[in-house]
Design goal:
12 strands, five-stranded mixed sheet, single chain
Protein backbone atom coordinates (compact mmCIF):
# COMPACT_ATOMS: atom_id res chain seq x y z
CA UNK A 1 0.00 0.00 0.00
CA UNK A 2 1.69 3.18 -1.21
CA UNK A 3 1.33 6.66 0.24
CA UNK A 4 0.59 7.91 -3.25
CA UNK A 5 -2.46 5.65 -3.46
CA UNK A 6 -3.64 6.74 -0.01
CA UNK A 7 -3.47 10.35 -1.17
CA UNK A 8 -5.52 9.38 -4.23
CA UNK A 9 -8.11 7.76 -1.98
CA UNK A 10 -8.31 10.85 0.27
CA UNK A 11 -8.76 13.12 -2.76
CA UNK A 12 -11.65 11.01 -4.03
CA UNK A 13 -13.25 10.99 -0.57
CA UNK A 14 -13.02 14.79 -0.36
CA UNK A 15 -14.32 15.47 -3.87
CA UNK A 16 -16.91 12.64 -3.93
CA UNK A 17 -16.06 12.36 -7.60
CA UNK A 18 -13.31 10.54 -9.47
CA UNK A 19 -13.27 13.10 -12.28
CA UNK A 20 -12.94 16.09 -9.93
CA UNK A 21 -10.29 14.27 -7.89
CA UNK A 22 -8.38 13.45 -11.07
CA UNK A 23 -8.38 17.14 -12.04
CA UNK A 24 -7.09 18.12 -8.58
CA UNK A 25 -4.36 15.48 -8.76
CA UNK A 26 -3.46 16.28 -12.38
CA UNK A 27 -3.81 12.66 -13.52
CA UNK A 28 -6.23 11.01 -15.93
CA UNK A 29 -9.56 9.68 -14.74
CA UNK A 30 -8.91 6.09 -16.01
CA UNK A 31 -5.61 6.03 -14.11
CA UNK A 32 -7.30 7.15 -10.87
CA UNK A 33 -10.16 4.67 -11.33
CA UNK A 34 -7.68 1.84 -11.83
CA UNK A 35 -5.73 2.83 -8.70
CA UNK A 36 -8.95 2.85 -6.67
CA UNK A 37 -9.95 -0.58 -7.97
CA UNK A 38 -6.50 -1.95 -7.13
CA UNK A 39 -6.77 -0.54 -3.60
CA UNK A 40 -10.19 -2.11 -3.05
CA UNK A 41 -8.83 -5.42 -4.38
CA UNK A 42 -5.85 -5.23 -2.03
CA UNK A 43 -8.12 -4.54 0.97
CA UNK A 44 -10.72 -7.03 -0.26
CA UNK A 45 -13.49 -4.55 0.50
CA UNK A 46 -15.58 -1.92 -1.26
CA UNK A 47 -14.66 1.59 -0.13
CA UNK A 48 -17.18 3.62 -2.16
CA UNK A 49 -20.78 3.39 -3.28
CA UNK A 50 -21.17 4.56 -6.90
CA UNK A 51 -24.29 6.45 -7.99
CA UNK A 52 -24.96 6.34 -11.73
CA UNK A 53 -27.66 9.00 -11.53
CA UNK A 54 -25.62 11.73 -9.81
CA UNK A 55 -22.21 10.47 -10.94
CA UNK A 56 -21.02 10.95 -7.36
CA UNK A 57 -19.51 8.38 -5.05
CA UNK A 58 -19.79 8.16 -1.28
CA UNK A 59 -17.87 6.23 1.32
CA UNK A 60 -19.19 2.90 2.53
CA UNK A 61 -19.07 1.98 6.22
CA UNK A 62 -15.72 0.28 5.59
CA UNK A 63 -14.64 3.33 3.59
CA UNK A 64 -15.21 5.61 6.59
CA UNK A 65 -13.11 3.30 8.75
CA UNK A 66 -10.33 3.27 6.19
CA UNK A 67 -10.55 7.07 5.82
CA UNK A 68 -9.51 7.58 9.44
CA UNK A 69 -6.53 5.25 9.07
CA UNK A 70 -5.48 6.76 5.75
CA UNK A 71 -5.56 10.28 7.21
CA UNK A 72 -3.45 9.17 10.18
CA UNK A 73 -0.88 7.39 7.98
CA UNK A 74 -0.51 10.29 5.55
CA UNK A 75 -0.31 12.86 8.36
CA UNK A 76 2.33 10.83 10.18
CA UNK A 77 4.34 10.39 6.98
CA UNK A 78 4.20 14.13 6.25
CA UNK A 79 5.24 15.00 9.80
CA UNK A 80 8.11 12.51 9.69
CA UNK A 81 9.38 13.96 6.42
CA UNK A 82 9.13 17.49 7.86
CA UNK A 83 11.17 16.51 10.93
CA UNK A 84 14.09 15.37 8.77
CA UNK A 85 14.23 18.33 6.43
CA UNK A 86 17.26 20.60 6.94
CA UNK A 87 16.43 23.21 9.54
CA UNK A 88 16.33 26.83 8.39
CA UNK A 89 18.27 29.54 10.18
CA UNK A 90 15.17 30.37 12.23
CA UNK A 91 13.80 27.22 13.86
CA UNK A 92 10.31 26.29 12.72
CA UNK A 93 8.12 23.25 13.06
CA UNK A 94 4.95 21.85 14.57
CA UNK A 95 4.14 20.53 18.02
CA UNK A 96 1.05 18.44 18.81
CA UNK A 97 -0.38 18.23 22.34
CA UNK A 98 -3.53 16.41 23.47
CA UNK A 99 -5.18 17.52 26.69
CA UNK A 100 -8.46 17.59 28.60
CA UNK A 101 -10.13 20.78 29.81
CA UNK A 102 -8.29 21.38 33.10
CA UNK A 103 -6.20 24.04 34.85
CA UNK A 104 -3.13 22.19 33.53
CA UNK A 105 -3.62 24.40 30.48
CA UNK A 106 -2.00 27.30 32.34
CA UNK A 107 1.34 25.42 32.42
CA UNK A 108 1.10 24.53 28.73
CA UNK A 109 0.26 28.12 27.74
CA UNK A 110 3.03 29.55 29.94
CA UNK A 111 5.54 27.23 28.25
CA UNK A 112 4.30 28.18 24.79
CA UNK A 113 4.53 31.90 25.60
CA UNK A 114 8.16 31.54 26.68
CA UNK A 115 9.04 29.46 23.63
CA UNK A 116 7.42 31.95 21.28
CA UNK A 117 9.73 34.66 22.58
CA UNK A 118 12.71 32.53 21.51
CA UNK A 119 11.30 30.66 18.49
CA UNK A 120 8.40 32.66 17.00
CA UNK A 121 8.10 30.38 13.96
CA UNK A 122 7.12 27.28 15.93
CA UNK A 123 3.48 26.26 15.53
CA UNK A 124 1.37 24.56 18.21
CA UNK A 125 -1.65 22.29 17.77
CA UNK A 126 -3.73 21.73 20.91
CA UNK A 127 -6.31 18.96 20.66
CA UNK A 128 -9.05 18.21 23.19
CA UNK A 129 -9.34 14.54 24.07
CA UNK A 130 -10.07 12.04 26.79
CA UNK A 131 -7.60 9.49 28.13
CA UNK A 132 -8.37 6.87 25.47
CA UNK A 133 -8.05 9.28 22.53
CA UNK A 134 -4.84 10.86 23.81
CA UNK A 135 -3.25 7.46 24.54
CA UNK A 136 -4.03 6.13 21.06
CA UNK A 137 -2.65 9.20 19.32
CA UNK A 138 0.49 9.22 21.45
CA UNK A 139 1.15 5.58 20.59
CA UNK A 140 0.55 6.18 16.89
CA UNK A 141 2.86 9.19 16.82
CA UNK A 142 0.13 11.72 16.00
CA UNK A 143 0.74 13.56 19.28
CA UNK A 144 4.05 14.62 20.80
CA UNK A 145 2.66 15.02 24.33
CA UNK A 146 -0.55 14.23 26.16
CA UNK A 147 -2.01 15.41 29.47
CA UNK A 148 -3.68 12.85 31.73
CA UNK A 149 -5.88 13.32 34.79
CA UNK A 150 -6.69 11.25 37.84
CA UNK A 151 -6.41 7.49 37.56
CA UNK A 152 -5.21 7.45 33.97
CA UNK A 153 -2.67 4.69 33.35
CA UNK A 154 0.52 6.59 32.53
CA UNK A 155 2.81 3.59 33.11
CA UNK A 156 2.84 3.02 29.34
CA UNK A 157 4.51 6.41 28.82
CA UNK A 158 7.32 8.52 30.16
CA UNK A 159 5.66 11.19 32.25
CA UNK A 160 6.04 14.20 34.53
CA UNK A 161 3.64 15.05 37.33
CA UNK A 162 2.24 18.57 37.56
CA UNK A 163 2.87 20.40 40.87
CA UNK A 164 -0.86 20.87 41.41
CA UNK A 165 -3.87 18.68 42.10
CA UNK A 166 -7.33 18.99 40.67
CA UNK A 167 -10.48 19.01 42.80
CA UNK A 168 -13.66 17.10 41.97
CA UNK A 169 -17.06 18.71 42.30
CA UNK A 170 -20.34 19.62 40.64
CA UNK A 171 -21.04 22.41 38.17
CA UNK A 172 -24.68 23.35 38.65
CA UNK A 173 -27.18 26.14 38.24
CA UNK A 174 -27.17 28.74 41.02
CA UNK A 175 -30.89 28.14 41.55
CA UNK A 176 -30.25 24.46 42.34
CA UNK A 177 -30.74 23.58 46.05
CA UNK A 178 -27.20 22.14 46.25
CA UNK A 179 -25.76 25.53 45.25
CA UNK A 180 -26.52 26.71 48.79
CA UNK A 181 -24.05 24.18 50.22
CA UNK A 182 -20.32 24.74 50.64
CA UNK A 183 -19.51 21.18 49.56
CA UNK A 184 -21.25 18.11 48.16
CA UNK A 185 -21.60 14.87 50.16
CA UNK A 186 -22.22 11.32 48.88
CA UNK A 187 -25.82 11.51 50.09
CA UNK A 188 -26.43 14.45 47.73
CA UNK A 189 -25.91 12.12 44.75
CA UNK A 190 -28.88 9.92 45.59
CA UNK A 191 -31.51 10.56 42.92
CA UNK A 192 -29.52 13.49 41.50
CA UNK A 193 -29.73 13.81 37.67
CA UNK A 194 -26.06 13.62 36.76
CA UNK A 195 -24.10 14.71 33.69
CA UNK A 196 -20.84 12.78 33.64
CA UNK A 197 -17.80 12.40 31.42
CA UNK A 198 -17.27 9.00 29.82
CA UNK A 199 -13.72 9.12 31.16
CA UNK A 200 -14.84 9.28 34.79
CA UNK A 201 -17.14 6.27 34.59
CA UNK A 202 -15.93 3.33 36.63
CA UNK A 203 -13.18 5.08 38.61
CA UNK A 204 -12.62 3.16 41.83
CA UNK A 205 -11.64 6.14 43.99
CA UNK A 206 -14.88 7.96 43.23
CA UNK A 207 -16.90 4.80 43.89
CA UNK A 208 -15.10 4.35 47.22
CA UNK A 209 -15.84 7.95 48.16
CA UNK A 210 -19.52 7.48 47.36
CA UNK A 211 -19.74 4.44 49.60
CA UNK A 212 -22.14 2.72 47.21
CA UNK A 213 -22.09 1.20 43.73
CA UNK A 214 -21.95 3.69 40.87
CA UNK A 215 -24.75 1.76 39.14
CA UNK A 216 -27.07 3.48 41.60
CA UNK A 217 -26.22 6.92 40.21
CA UNK A 218 -28.79 8.60 38.00
CA UNK A 219 -26.57 9.39 34.98
CA UNK A 220 -28.82 11.07 32.43
CA UNK A 221 -26.18 12.32 29.96
CA UNK A 222 -22.52 11.55 29.24
CA UNK A 223 -20.16 13.93 27.46
CA UNK A 224 -16.68 14.42 26.03
CA UNK A 225 -16.43 18.23 25.99
CA UNK A 226 -17.05 20.21 29.18
CA UNK A 227 -18.43 23.18 27.28
CA UNK A 228 -21.37 21.09 26.07
CA UNK A 229 -21.94 19.72 29.57
CA UNK A 230 -22.08 23.23 31.05
CA UNK A 231 -24.80 24.19 28.57
CA UNK A 232 -26.79 21.22 29.86
CA UNK A 233 -26.32 22.38 33.47
CA UNK A 234 -27.38 25.88 32.44
CA UNK A 235 -30.68 24.45 31.23
CA UNK A 236 -31.02 22.68 34.63
CA UNK A 237 -31.23 19.24 33.03
CA UNK A 238 -28.61 17.87 35.41
CA UNK A 239 -25.50 18.60 37.47
CA UNK A 240 -22.06 18.08 35.91
CA UNK A 241 -19.56 15.92 37.79
CA UNK A 242 -16.14 17.19 36.75
CA UNK A 243 -12.83 18.65 37.84
CA UNK A 244 -12.92 22.26 38.99
CA UNK A 245 -13.13 24.23 35.75
CA UNK A 246 -11.07 27.30 34.87
CA UNK A 247 -12.57 30.71 35.62
CA UNK A 248 -14.56 30.68 32.40
CA UNK A 249 -17.82 29.50 34.00
CA UNK A 250 -20.10 32.42 34.77
CA UNK A 251 -23.59 33.01 36.06
CA UNK A 252 -25.92 31.26 36.21
CA UNK A 253 -23.47 28.40 36.89
CA UNK A 254 -21.32 27.73 39.94
CA UNK A 255 -18.91 25.04 41.19
CA UNK A 256 -19.26 23.17 44.49
CA UNK A 257 -16.42 20.80 45.54
CA UNK A 258 -16.96 17.29 46.84
CA UNK A 259 -16.42 17.00 50.58
CA UNK A 260 -13.20 15.18 51.50
CA UNK A 261 -12.92 13.59 48.06
CA UNK A 262 -9.54 12.40 46.75
CA UNK A 263 -7.77 14.97 44.60
CA UNK A 264 -6.82 14.12 41.03
CA UNK A 265 -3.18 14.10 39.95
CA UNK A 266 -2.11 15.57 36.61
CA UNK A 267 0.59 14.20 34.31
CA UNK A 268 2.08 15.11 30.97
CA UNK A 269 3.26 12.03 29.08
CA UNK A 270 5.06 11.06 25.89
CA UNK A 271 5.82 7.82 24.11
CA UNK A 272 8.65 5.80 25.66
CA UNK A 273 11.97 5.70 23.77
CA UNK A 274 10.68 8.41 21.45
CA UNK A 275 13.24 10.26 19.35
CA UNK A 276 12.09 13.83 19.80
CA UNK A 277 11.98 16.38 17.03
CA UNK A 278 13.82 19.56 17.95
CA UNK A 279 10.55 21.48 18.67
CA UNK A 280 9.39 18.66 20.98
CA UNK A 281 12.75 18.56 22.74
CA UNK A 282 12.73 22.33 23.26
CA UNK A 283 9.16 22.21 24.58
CA UNK A 284 9.99 19.51 27.12
CA UNK A 285 13.09 21.39 28.32
CA UNK A 286 11.10 24.62 28.73
CA UNK A 287 8.20 22.78 30.36
CA UNK A 288 10.53 21.19 32.94
CA UNK A 289 11.81 24.67 33.77
CA UNK A 290 8.25 25.99 34.16
CA UNK A 291 7.40 23.15 36.56
CA UNK A 292 10.62 23.70 38.53
CA UNK A 293 9.71 27.34 39.07
CA UNK A 294 6.33 26.34 40.52
CA UNK A 295 7.79 24.07 43.21
Amino acid sequence: MELRVLRYFLAIAREESISRAADKLHITQPTLSRQLMDLETELDTRLFDRSRQSRSITLTKEGWRFLQRAEEIVELADRTAAEFRPEPDALEGDLYIGLPETVSMQFIVHTIRRLREKYPRLRYHLQDGNEHDVSEQLNSGLLDFGVFVGQADVSRFDALQFPIREHWGLVLHRDHPLARKDSITPEDFIGLPLVMSQQELGHDKFSNWLGFDMDKLSIVITFNLAYNAFLIAQEQIGCVLCLEPPDRIRDPLCFRPLSSSPDALLYIGWKKHRQFSRPAKLFLEEFRQVLKEQV
